Structures are given as structure tokens and as C-alpha cells.
Amino acid sequence: MDSFAPMPLIGVTLDQEPGGSGQYSAFPWYALRANYMGAVIKAGGLPVALPYAPCLTGKILDRLDGLIVTGGAFDIDPALYGEERNETTTTLKPGRTAAEMALLEAAMKRDIPVLGICGGMQLLAAALDGSLIQDIASEQPTALPHEQPNPRDQAGHIVSIEPYSLLGQIVGRGTMAVNSSHHQAVRDPGRGRVSARAEDGIIEAIEDPSARFCVGVQWHPEFLIDPGDLALFTAFVEAAQNATVSGDGVW
């Protein structure tokens, strides 16, 4: 990346907790692991946290050069992909999902670079008219333990990458070692295409072939476990750099 060019402004979505006694705040508060921001900075981007404000979606995207939709300990509402909610879909965050979907759909319409991480990939699949497995363990009992027992900053399994996919071009290898923290997964990528799978066949990455850069990964690359993780963040930030619209970068 040109060291004299402004750093592209990367919007990063947040989780939200309801607040209460014994929590960080008695009132609702936003939350995000620091390594999301750290990975963007390491890749050359300027991260900014995004509030839940669907009414400001256009104003927000007027200033952004790239969008990251993050993960979290909740499920995507099955209504978004035309299914009934079953008993394994335990936790919904409708306010968060509505805000993220508004940002995601608007970013895709504008062809702003998008990176969906874990739940963000699942939301991307819904935005591309795809569908999800609501619970891997009950639907595919022979699958790998996608809620890995070891710490999240360690690899849980290997993924195989499609060589002619955008992800494959970025990583430059046929496999990656990734962490795993999800009980749902993409069943059908809709208008997207599959770019990586786990050894058990579970979809681990998708992308929109009609976009300049629109990639979703099921793992958490912000932990930078595999060299491909930083390569992914760097390619995303470079795509945002090549379409800088904000003018708010720092020199």
C-alpha cells in the first residue's frame, strides 16, 4: 500500500449487551474484541466502530471505504432466509441484525468492499438469498466440533480453498488452519459461491462473484492464526484503498 496515501476508513460493526447489575454498565452497551480493530490497523486500515442506526445507513456509507460485519454469540433470524425458527436457534439480536443487514445491503449495492466474519458471513449468505443450517450438531451429527474445545487463538481444523476463488488468489495456498466457534453454518450461498470448506464438507467461506470484493469467512481471521488471515485483511484493506471515498484518512 502507498505509504503516502490516506488510510482507508473501515467501518466495523459492534455487538450490544443489554446491561444490568454486575455488568460493565447498568444500561445497554456496545462491545467488540480489540483484535478486530488491531487486525485492520495491522493491514493498513483506519477502523471506526459503527452504531446501530439504520436511519443513518446512507450517511455512514458515504464516509466509509470498506465494511466489516463481525461475529457474536447469537443466531441469524431464520425468517431472513424463509425458515421457521427451531428450538436450536436460541439467541436472536433483532436490533443488531437489522442494523447490520441495512449496512450490508447498502454496501453491496454501492460495491463497497465487504468482509463478513463468522456471523457476518452467515448474514452475507442471507443477503445473497442463501440459507443456513440452524444447528450443525443436530443436522450433521458426524461433523467436526465446530465449537472447538481449545482456545480461540489456536486452530481448530483445516479448510480447503477453491484455487480459482478470490480467497484462493489472496491466500495463494490450497489450505488454511483456522479456528472454529459456530453452531450454525451456511447451507446454500444463494447468489454467492463457495470458496472454502472444512474437512467434513461444512461451508467455511463464500464470496459474491459479481462484486469487486465481497468475502465471508466462517472462522475468526482477526486472531491472525494462519498467514492467510493477515493476507485476507490486507487484500480487503487494499480493495478499500483503491476505492477511497471518505477523504478522512490520515497521512
Automatic annotation (TrEMBL):
Record keywords: Glutamine amidotransferase, Transferase
Gene3D superfamilies reported in the protein's UniProt record: 3.40.50.880
Record keyword tRNA processing present: no
One cellular-component annotation, GO: cytosol
GO biological process: polyamine catabolic process
Entry-linked InterPro entries: Class_I_gatase-like, Peptidase_C26, PuuD-like
PROSITE patterns assigned: GATASE_TYPE_1
A Pfam entry, by short name: Peptidase_C26
Name of this chain's protein: Glutamine amidotransferase
Source species: Acetobacter aceti
